[in-house]
Amino acid sequence: MPDPNPAAMEFLLNRRSRPAKTLTTPVPDRAALMPILTAAARSPDHGKLEPWRFMVLERNALLRLATLIDECGDRLGKPPEDIAKARAQYADAHLAVAVIEVQIPSGKIPLLEQTYSAGAVCLALLNAALASGWGANWLSGWASHDRGFVEAGFGLADNERIAGLIHIGTETSAPPERPRPDLDAITTWVTE
Ligand SMILES: Cc1cc2nc3c(=O)[nH]c(=O)nc-3n(C[C@H](O)[C@H](O)[C@H](O)COP(=O)(O)O)c2cc1C
């Protein structure tokens, strides 16, 4: 017989991100962040390659990254309003964890599966932060996919890219529920 964990199911059925721009201080300190990172690292990983790592971006690092957005946006031809929004993602944040996908050459494990694993780490990190009582939000943004930005700002190597930026902080307001998928529309029961 199954051995249910109703508290875990209750959390999973009701979890909701908190928009990053509504997050404020305090943010988790290093001690509070460790179990959250530990939970995130406990994610499915085919071949035990550990094709990911964390960069914890504290306030000063986020401010430094914000100063690199203008050059990136100009180079990509982004309009000023997009550049301002992207800059604010960093300049207004107090803590974010970058989940870095580290692609490991392997004859056995396809790179795509390493990407899936990095995405799983992002969700596990988001959920662990939410379950710990913090507000959290998984963001990317065009700058996070730009090689110039991630190499200059994060020092990423050629085999690395940003899977997600998990912003974590104290929530100021709970957002309303958003529409969720129609299970009947996305589920096929294969009976034979
Ligand atoms: C890979 C990925 C990147 C995302 N990037 C952004 C982003 O840059 N900006 C944004 O507003 N939302 C972004 N989102 C969506 C937010 O995480 C959004 O808050 C989320 O859909 C809320 O869902 P939830 O309440 O089910 O957690 C992203 C989501 C994913 C999966």
TrEMBL record:
It comes from the Bacteria. Residues 15-169 form the Nitroreductase domain. Its EC number is 1.-.-.-. GO terms for molecular function: oxidoreductase activity. It is an enzyme of class 1 (oxidoreductase). The keyword Flavoprotein applies. Keywords: Flavoprotein, FMN, NAD, NADP, Oxidoreductase. It holds the Pfam family Nitroreductase. This is Putative NAD(P)H nitroreductase. FMN binds at residues 15-17, 42, 46, 138-140. Binds 1 FMN per subunit. Belongs to the nitroreductase family. Its cofactor is FMN.
